[in-house]
Amino acid sequence: MAGNLDGKTTLVTGGGSGIGRAASLAYAREGARVVVVDVNVEGGEETIQQIKEAGGEAILVHADVAKPEDTQAMVAQAVAAFGSLDCAFNNAGVSGRERWLTAEYPEEEWDRVTSINLKGVWLCMKAEIPQMLKQGGGAIVNTASVAGLVGIRGTAAYIAAKHGVVGLTKAAALEYADRGIRVNSVCPGYIHTPLVQGVFDSVDGYEDQVKSRHPVGRLGEPQEIAEAVLWLSSDSASFVTGHNMAVDGGYTAQ
């Protein structure tokens, strides 16, 4: 396979399903060697199989992004397997259901959501950036959310974490812009993934309610986010850094 990322190595956290799987497949389509990272080994193996069936090259790494030893190990395994780390898509995350007011939010749930969605992104970059500096550059894309750009009632931890990813992306972009590393994020609207579907299934009528928030009148598809990630990772976006790109069907234009 050959394309815009031919010969490059990219790492995708949360690559076992949803947006992560779509991005992994898109990277492979463009010629990248893909390191699929997930706590869900079965899902990761399915992604690997799809990449290889399409003629791509990939390995699976089992890692929990909330653990610094795991994020360091995933980068080490990527370099051991393919010799470099050129792109990283820090996508792994958990959902935040809209059910608790801020003063009622359980501390245990707060810690769970923020440790994966925010601290996990920081730990990934903490592992990825030194390797990219050794190589003279690279491209990082983080998964934020429309929840990183606006407020949503009842999901304080998720909102806080995703706003944190937006700010973290800007800070890192400024710090490494003159050292060859670009750092951007995608801010998806509600996307038709197993994670989101699980939330919908738990509340009657919630899916229709969420669809109505998007001016285009539908949810997004994982492939639509993957294409944005692919562009931000490629040399076509060589003058883009510190940008938090809304891919949201008009959600934040209102």
Q: How would you describe what is shown here?
A:
This protein has 254 residues and is of the alpha/beta class. The protein has one domain (9-253): NAD(P)-binding Rossmann-like Domain (Rossmann fold, 3-Layer(aba) Sandwich). It is built from eight helices and seven strands. It has helices at 18-29, 41-53, 68-82, 107-135, 156-176, 194-201, 206-211, 222-233; strands at 9-13, 33-38, 57-62, 87-90, 138-143, 181-188, 244-247. It has a seven-stranded parallel β-sheet with strand order 3-2-1-4-5-6-7, with helices on both faces. Helix 5 (156-176) links the parallel strand 5 and strand 6. Helix 1 packs parallel to helix 2, helix 1 packs across helix 8 and helix 4 (107-135) runs parallel beside helix 5. It is globular and about 50 Å long.
Short structural description:
Helices cover 46% and strands 15% of the residues. The chain has 254 residues and is an alpha/beta fold. Helix 1 (18-29) runs parallel beside helix 2, helix 3 runs parallel beside helix 4 (107-135) and helix 4 (107-135) packs parallel to helix 5 (156-176).
List the helices and strands and how they pair.
Layout: E1 9-13, H1 18-29, E2 33-38, H2 41-53, E3 57-62, H3 68-82, E4 87-90, H4 107-135, E5 138-143, H5 156-176, E6 181-188, H6 194-201, H7 206-211, H8 222-233, E7 244-247
Parallel strand pairs: 1-2, 1-4, 2-3, 4-5, 5-6, 6-7
Helix pairs in contact: 1-2, 1-8, 3-4, 4-5
